[in-house]
Amino acid sequence: MAKTIEETKTAYATLEEDSRKVILSYLSRRLMKVEARAAKVEEERDDMATMNANLVADRTWMQNFSVVQVANTILDALENTNAVAGVVGSAREAGYKADYIECIAHVNVVSAKKFTD
Prior knowledge:
mainly alpha; about 90% helix
């Protein structure tokens, strides 16, 4: 009887040790997955911070060099002057005077220069 009790205790201890090993290996796998996910999240957070910094820089640039200034620079460019004059002439010839006046009204809002028909 004592031998059976001793064998049972030994078998129980072995099972308990095996159970601990299984639990530890399971927890180790889960911990590695969580650490990998945390590293990925941190990398994505750094990417978002970089993107945010770029957007802030773009916003600052647009505040300093407003879209109106950029549009005026493009419209005042020598190569665009002839093209704009051609479009205006074509619009007048085609009989779209009302649309042309509406367009000029929109341009006048944006531009400090006043265009006339």
